[in-house]
Amino acid sequence: MPSLLRSARSTGVIAGITLAVLIATGLMLALTHSKSAARQQRLVVANYETMGLMREMVIAVQDAEIGMRGFLLTGDISSLEPYERARLRIETNMRLLEAMVAGDPDTTRQFQEFRSVTAQKFEQLNATVGVHQLNGREAALALDRTGAGRAMLGQIRLLGDALVEGQRLLLARRVTALRSEQEQADIAGLLVMAGAFVCLIVGIYIVVRSASRLERSQLELAGRSRLLQATLESLRDPIFVVDDRRTVVAWNEAFAKLAQWEPGKQAPPTLDQLLSDRSPATRALLLPLDLGAMSPKGSAVVRVAHDGRDYEIYRGEMSGGGAVVRCIDITEKLHDEAALRQGQKMEATGQLTGGMAHDFNNILQVIRANLDLLKGEVGDNAAMASRVQSATAAADRGARLTQQLLAFARRQPLTPQPTNVARLVGDLADLMRHSLGERIAIELKVTDDPWNAKVDAGQLENAILNLSINARDAMPDGGTVRVEVSNATLDRRYAALHPDVTPGPYVLVDVGDTGTGMPPEVVAQAFDPFFTTKGDGRGTGLGLSMVYGFVRQSNGHIRIDSAIGQGTSVKLYLPRTEDPVPEERSDPGSSVSGTERILVVEDSEDVRRAVVDMLTGWGYRVEAAEDPDVALAFLEKDPAFDLLFTDIVMPGTITAVELAQHAQRLRPGIAVLLTSGFARGLIPDHTRSGYPMIAKPYGSDALSAKLRSVLSNRRPTPAVSPAKASPDRVEQPMEHSRSRRVLFVEDEVVLRMSTTDMLERLGCSVAGVGSGEAALDLLGQEQEFDLLLTDVGLPGMSGEELAAKVREKYPSLPVVIASGYGRSGTQADRMHFISKPYSSIDLQQALDHAVRNVS
What we know:
Radius of gyration: 44 Å
């Protein structure tokens, strides 16, 4: 028994020792596996944090890209703030992420590659911002359009996704290891405390899942917060959100500046603070919204003026209480609306006055023509001659009045040509001194190397004299009139503030005085027709209106700067031209009488009768027709006329210019003279034929001189159409005195118009098209052309390809190619080139050379 007890005790001791060993082993295994599981759990959490940091850095890079693009679009340096914040976030997160992945070589390699590409991306963003600041928005946009930035952003996203995917794979392995440790811990725990271990496993599972959900929720909340803040910061106008406790909970930087509040240093303001006297700006803007009551009235909009600016204040109520408030600066909008209304008013007034002036010109034409006829019949009757002279003076005064109305309406016939404005002003000095009187001092100032302008010199003289006389009237006690000629360039910023301005170089004529000046309300109406501050009988109110219309019709810009007691300055910006100023030549004079046969076409019976009587009295043989259709019937029966004198705007199935073209086909040597009360530029494009024109109303001296000039310069028989010419026949070069019919091919509309004007000034008749295919169509229609002028860069068929086809089909047609790259290609030796940019002299020489050397 004792042996049995000893054996039992021994067995018990052994069992106890074994159990203790098993328990100790189980405890050790449980402790070991618990520590291992805890380490794996930390690694799992680290994996989640690493993935979160990587996603946040990718989002930060995208925020930086958005900030940079906002800066490129707006040019506002404040748009770069998302970019600056993203850079700071990335620098901090880079350090954290580098510490987290330090123990994993593969992840460290991926991280180093991601950091390198991210650094390159920020260097590219910095370079784009620097280019914008140094060379302007267009250069920055050109750098951005290379696509390098987008490629790097895509690479960053791929690297970030790769690192996240690697972390996910590592996470899967660690979760597997964690589960293995947990299973082994389970086995060890079953030896000692299975229930406790089960509870531990459940607790670990709950903690891990809760941590994951919490992390996802935090990331989502942070993303929404960043999106909301980015949206608020993208608005240039102040905006803020106030909650139901009357505290500002969201805002943008514009609001912080308005409220003079420093976020981060001061607590968010309350409504009471915003509406107090400590914040006068927000009090003035928000008080009309009745935000203090916070009553649920729904959305509201009020307009408030503060500190010289106009604002629209929007309030939107939130369902849970509180409101969203936005303050929009509408000062520029109101300014643009006022400018638009003023422009519409001036345009409507111009249409009305222009129509009246045109009809009145026809009436004046009848009166003036009959008065000129009466001059030869009064004989020695002094009283009758005096009456005729008085009536003629009244007609001239009426003509000047209609001319002023047409000038304001921008419908006066102008003859713009390259003009030396500085020389013109110098020549006006003596006339200005006689016109202004001895009490007015005149100061002329001309800049060094002044530019030339493309204007009507006579109208410019009238404008300067008109402004000088206005300046004299503003100085009843005497003073100084200053006329300054300088060079000026109006940039895009100035053009954005003045919609009628085209950016570019201008010749500035500044006429100023030291007079009484004008208040703003008078300056606003100064250009209105018939508006005057002078007494009754001292002015028509058309002086400044005429100057305004002349400058605008000349594609220029006019501005008045004036203040009470400081004088007035009227600035005329006239478009610069690089064409040479023609030499002044005196007319040799001409005889009033003639014996040529003239066909007069005029729809107004009174004007027609007066013109016929005038021409017959001078010895001409005259036939008259009331419209182009009747005139064409005359010509088809008997084309033996020396000159066709026709009004432009008339009823009928054909136009006056089409009539002139028919007449020149029926009688190649016939001269053409057009007349109209409208400006040449207002006639439809197909009538811009280059025919000479005399504006209504005209005097007998002007008409007789114009008739003799046109008759003495009659054109010879036109050249044969290149489409009708035999390919084997060589045409003789055109005489220089003949008007050339030029087919001009240019796809840029503005360049085509300007070159067409240049060719017309050289005496050419131009047909302009925008493609080589259209040019071949015109040639195929058997239209008569003496020369082809084409640009190299055309859509579809190039200029050289067009020239080769024309030379192959019409070898007698001269071809000139305009190019900014000089002579190029295999066809260079067979064609005539002119390099851009070229002047009218260069163009004339190229055309002459091509015609002389055509093969």
